[in-house]
Specification:
Blueprint (H helix, E strand, L loop, with lengths): L1 H14 L3 H13 L6 H23 L4 H27 L5 H29 L4 H4 L2 H19 L5 E3 L4 E3 L6 H22 L8 H15 L2 H24 L4 H21 L4 H20 L7 H8 L2 H7 L2 H13 L3 H6 L19 H34 L7 H19 L7 H24 L11
Antiparallel strand pairs: 1-2
């Protein structure tokens, strides 16, 4: 059994590398209108084996208090999920069993995989195997994404990020928002890995991967990925300045890192007018003007379009119409029964036709409407625990948080939580959540060792 635990822990690390391939195959299969995709089947299979892995881990560590708490959590989560399904089966005007169960399965992916990675990293940290896999696996995975994006771009086989604008590219990946979230969350880890490898200037070639990742992110054309790039590089520059003044014997090195980061940031700013995201901003303004003009004609505009053009211009641009979907979902929630308010309304609240089912695409909001008041508390409990723990570590060890490792981990975790609100498709999207929870688990492992030993765990870092 212990041998299985070790091998599966290593598999979970390597599993991250295969994510871009799964996503590309899924994207190509979706284009052929296949209802069940290869990627979904693989991810559900891995989730099922991870449940078995966790049970074995608990059997071998049954005297562990954390293990007992984990069993309790999953029992409560399963109970809440079953109650929610039953309530919505009885109350929803249209209950589509396949949609409800598929959505619930995707939702359960994050808590199962988060706990799986928490235990896997503890197992791998004992003999420093983790140094050979993380963050290297993240670095390799994003490089694969960049290669696929570039091949698709130069062969003119990319899918459009915005089909109605015919702008932006998502390579062979079907969902541009999910791709944007992946690149955004992983980019700080890419920067950390590259900076640690460039301990000698003869290794400057590692920065080529960063340039390719930036180019791929800008091809997508989403504002989320652009903001993530700017946020990550600004924090890295700040960290390099702090390290410059703290390390007198390495000032020349950190000055070089500062220049490298500043040039990269300047390049993004210089290239902004030519980016697809700049054009979508212009088209957004033009679209609102057009709809306002149509509202004055006999033809008019729809009720949802009217809400959209009346929303604050900046808010409507940042959330891309999600505020309208939120208003509609909130209206359905207000008219729902008390049990639905407590345990949620399932997939896309109430809808009379499948084609009318719309998610808000803001994770926390969708989770609230899906699981209700009690269900949301239970569902988000692991994330809230990790967030509070990491915030506490950040302020308790504030002086040590300015290394490239810690500041980029902070950036990645912040982007994960932030993108879940701004663009959605993070917590409840298995293709994205696997990156988020693995990085979160890695940050938690570092934080726990740091607080327990009162020393920054140098044994958990990029291995030279």
């Amino acid at each position: 059994m212990q041998r299985f635990i070790k091998k599966y822990s290593i598999f979970l690390m390597l599993y991250i590398v295969f994510q871009p391939v799964l996503d590309a195959v899924t994207g190509l299969m979706t284009q052929t209108h296949m209802s069940v995709t290869f990627g979904v089947l693989i991810r559900m299979a891995v989730m099922a084996v991870t449940v078995f892995y966790l049970l074995i881990f608990l059997i071998l560590n049954r005297d562990n208090r954390r293990g007992f708490m984990m069993i309790g959590y999953f029992v409560i989560l399963a109970l809440v999920s079953v109650i929610s399904l039953f309530i919505n089966y009885k109350n929803k005007s249209l209950f589509v069993t396949s949609l409800e169960i598929t959505t619930l399965a995707k939702s359960l992916y994050y808590p199962i995989m988060l706990l799986g990675y928490l235990y896997a990293f503890e197992e791998l940290a004992e003999d420093r195997i983790i140094n050979r896999f993380f963050p290297k696996v993240i670095f390799i995975a994003v490089n694969i994404i960049s290669i696929i994006m570039l091949i698709a771009h130069f062969t003119n086989t990319s899918f459009s990020s915005y089909s109605y604008y015919k702008l932006g590219e998502s390579g062979w990946f079907f969902a541009a928002n999910e791709l944007s979230a992946i690149v955004s969350i992983t980019f700080p880890i890419m920067v950390w890995y590259a900076l640690k490898k460039i301990n000698r200037w003869t290794r400057l070639y590692y920065w080529i991967s960063i340039i390719l990742a930036i180019y791929s992110a800008l091809l997508i054309g989403t504002k989320g990925s652009l903001l993530a790039l700017l946020f990550s590089l600004c924090l890295a520059i700040l960290a390099s300045i702090v390290q410059f003044f703290r390390n007198r014997d390495r000032r020349k090195y950190f000055a070089g890192i500062f220049i490298l980061l500043a040039i990269t940031l300047g390049g993004i700013i210089k290239a902004y007018p030519a980016m697809a995201v700049a054009r979508t901003s212009e088209l957004h303004t033009e679209m609102i003007k057009d709809k306002k003009q149509k509202a004055k004609t006999k033809k008019g505009i729809t009720k949802d379009q009217k809400k959209y053009v009346q929303t604050n211009k900046t808010v409507s641009y940042l959330f891309s119409g999600r505020t309208v979907y939120f208003e509609n979902a909130a209206h359905n929630f207000s008219k729902s029964t008390l049990p639905q308010k407590v345990f949620g309304m399932g997939y896309a609240t109430n809808f009379k036709k499948v084609q009318d089912a719309k998610l808000v695409e803001m994770d926390y909001v969708d989770i609230f409407f899906q699981f209700g008041v009690i269900g949301t508390i239970v569902y988000l409990a692991p994330l809230l625990y990790c967030l509070i723990y990491l915030i506490g570590t950040f302020f308790r060890k504030f002086g040590s948080m300015w290394s490239s490792k810690w500041i980029m981990l902070v950036a990645s975790v912040c982007l994960g939580f932030g993108m879940a609100l701004l663009t959605g498709h993070v917590i409840e999207a298995p293709s994205v959540s696997v990156y988020f929870v693995s990085i979160l688990a890695y940050a938690m492992l570092n934080a726990r060792i740091f607080l327990r030993t009162n020393e920054d765990p140098y044994t958990i870092d990029v291995e030279d």
